[in-house]
Amino acid sequence: MSANPRSGLRRDATVNRQRLLEAARHLFAERGPDVALEEVAAAAGVSRTTLYRNFETREQLVATVYESAVELVEARARELADRSTGVVELFDFVLDLQRANRSLVRVLAGADISWFGSLAERTVTAFEVVLVRGRVGGVVHAGVGMAEIFLALQMAEGAMAQNERVSRERWDERIREMLHRALFVA
């Protein structure tokens, strides 16, 4: 028996939270963020009470999943900071995240979560360095700035969320190609 019984509970709570996040990522990617929260709890192998103890609302759960995606974007941006093609690679990385997490942005756009604004700012900051490097390297079309990059990502998110599962991959690639032509030189 453990000398500190609370440490076991804390470890279990951490494990349960991670299981909920993994289940949410999987179900949101597969069926969108409107999936019943009870299904998320069941997929994680926890009760609804445990889910609501960790996430009071659907928006909090979705935002937490989104925050982990922002952390991935920030890490990838740091890796690409010295490449002139870093902006293209980061753009593609974000498109891949959107493909894996369809409709998350739609849920978050209507969320009343104060820290969501800081997540958006963090994403902009991650792109700024690679965008400047891309301009210097001649990879980005003249006149393309952060507004155009994020408009393109929003357009992609909306278009990708609407694709039927059968034709999803083919259309996602067409969307990517069209946006590349609009934003990037090569």
Automatic annotation (TrEMBL):
Q: Which SUPFAM superfamilies match?
A: Homeodomain-like
> Mind listing where the DNA-binding region sits, in residue ranges?
36-55
Q: Name one GO molecular function term.
A: DNA-binding transcription factor activity
Name one matching Pfam family: TetR_N
InterPro entries assigned to the protein according to its UniProt record, in alphabetical order: Homeodomain-like_sf, HTH-type_TetR-like_transc_reg, HTH_TetR
Per UniProt, the keywords (alphabetical) are:
DNA-binding, Transcription, Transcription regulation
Where do the HTH tetR-type domain residues begin and end?
A: 14-73
Membrane-spanning residues: none
Taxonomic superkingdom: Bacteria
State the protein's name.
AcrR family transcriptional regulator
Record the organism.
Answer: Micromonospora polyrhachis
